[in-house]
Structures are given as C-alpha cells and as structure tokens.
Input
Amino acid sequence: MKQITFLLSLLMMATVAIAQVKKTTVKKKTAVKKSNTVKITPQKPAVPVKMRVPGVRIQITTDSGVIMVRLSDLTPQHRDNFVSLVKKGFYDSLLFHRVMREFMIQGGDPESKMATAGAILGNGGSDMARIPAEIIPSLYHKRGVLAAASDGNPEKASNGCQFYIVQGKKFTDQELDMSETRIGRKYSITERMVYKNIGGAPWLDGNYTVFGEVESGMEVVDKIAGVPGDRYNRPLGDVRMKMEILSMK
Output
C-alpha cells in the first residue's frame, strides 16, 4: 500500500512539473510573437532647406552667350554703382573692347557703343566720379571674379563704369613667389592652392577692387577671351553686351 501511495505521489509531482513547463513555454512563445508585431510608424523624409546666397545677381547677355554674376556685399559702393548703371541701361550695346587670352575680358567704355572699326577704346568714363577703393583680402583675383578697372591713381580708386572679368591661368609656386615680390605681400595657403589649381591673375591683388564673381557662363568668358584682336587687344569682331538685374537682396 505504501508503495502504491509513493508511486501516486511521484506521478502527481511529474504531472505538475510537466504543466509548469508547458505554461512557461506558452508564455515565451507569446512574448516572441508580440515583439514581432510591433507597429513601426514611417518617418516623413526631411524637407531640404533652400539656402539663399546674399548679393545682387546680374545677367550679362553677349553675342557669345550669357554670363551670370553675383555682386559682393563686402564692396557696397562698387555694388551700388554697378546696380545703378545697370538699371539705367548704361551697359546695353557697349562692347567688350579689350580681351586677352589667359588674362581677362574688359568692357564698360561708353565710347564703345558707337565706335567705328579699329578705333582705340578704353579711355571712356574718365569724366565720371571715381569709386573709392574697396580692396578686401578675401576677394582676390581668382578665375571668374568681376573687378573694377582703374587708371593707376595713387588712391587705387576705380573707374566709374569700366569692369573686367578674370579668365586667368594656373601658376606654379615659383611664379607665385615672383608675384609676391612684385605686389609686396605673401599669399595665404588657400590663395596659393586656388592660383595653382584653378587659376587667376594674382599680380593684380591689392591694386584693383574685386566686387563680384561669375556664377555661371565661364565658358562664355573663355570664348570671348579667345577671339582674335588687333594690336590694342580689341576684338576684330564686335562683342556687345546687355545687362539686367535678376534678383536683389
């Protein structure tokens, strides 16, 4: 009888143990199933923020194509003078009267509008008020900058209307060393890298005001700079311009 009682006790204990194991297993399966069905809310893609670059944008339409330039706010007197002339239509039908390959293209001489073939240009605008120099170290003569012409006066003041766009060329360290001696100052590491890899006209730094930069259309500048010219670097075929303001600040 004792043996039967003992066997019944073992059987009951085994049954309870099996039931506990099944209960635990069910709980684990439920937990795993629940974690696999977690709802994930899709995130909306970030909306890109359009950055506005400051400065006035000018479109220069030429016989060879369109050049887009942006004026610098660091040179307010040159910026405002240029904008005023564009608004008046001053530059419309004027010529790029001086072009030099691997250097620059120059325009803005009011005498070029009605100039006959072969006439010597470049002295126009001398009766206009000069613009005080605004020579900013961070605005140097790298490829594509817009700068004001000058007659070499001691104050380095700019001509009231004539401008040039630098096409430039690339320079070696040795050539930049020579240019430093000529202008009497050292180029920064950044300036050297730009003049060596992008190009420009470094010897002009410190003597002329840079007041803008080409945003697009450098291929047009290259094309104009490469046209044949006479001994005064005036293109043998007229290259006229028309300007309009595309955007203000």
Notes: The helical segments are 2-35, 76-88, 173-183, 189-197, 218-225. The radius of gyration is 37 Å. DSSP finds five helices and eight strands in the chain.
